[in-house]
Amino acid sequence: xxxxxxxxxxxxxxxxxxxxxxxxxxxxxxxxxxxxxxxxxxxxxxxxxxxxxxxxxxxxxxxxxxxxxxxxxxxxxxxxxxxxxxxxxxxxxxxxxxxxxxxxxxxxxxxxxxxxxxxxxxxxxxxxxxxxxxxxxxxxxxxxxxxxxxxxxx
Length: 154
Description:
Layout: H1 2-25, E1 51-57, E2 64-72, E3 81-82, E4 87-93, E5 95-100, E6 110-113, E7 117-120, E8 126-129, E9 135-143, E10 148-149
Antiparallel strand pairs: 1-2, 2-9, 3-10, 4-7, 4-9, 5-6, 5-8
């Protein structure tokens, strides 16, 4: 009786180990999940204002939900502008510098560290960018995404 119980325990343990190995070595169902590793994210060209964008979901130029990564290069900041719709931003890496109002003054910008969450409210003037290093932002919003220069900026 002891031999049978010990044999049953060994078989059970082997099945548990085998099932764990199968689960970790399996392939993911492409209909269930899509993973893009950092080196697989398609970044666009660096624009004149020192930013670069990678569209992760949706199409920012069309109506509907979009998700983009935006990278600001060191020393580049936007000028006062606003967006037609709310935008929700998570700072992924670096320190993002932001300011509000029509007066553009990078020295008055407030630092926003990695891990922070920011809401840009529709039609409210702001400006932002990077100072010392690259900044990567995850931006989610409803398209079409717009960037409208403030007519009162100085």
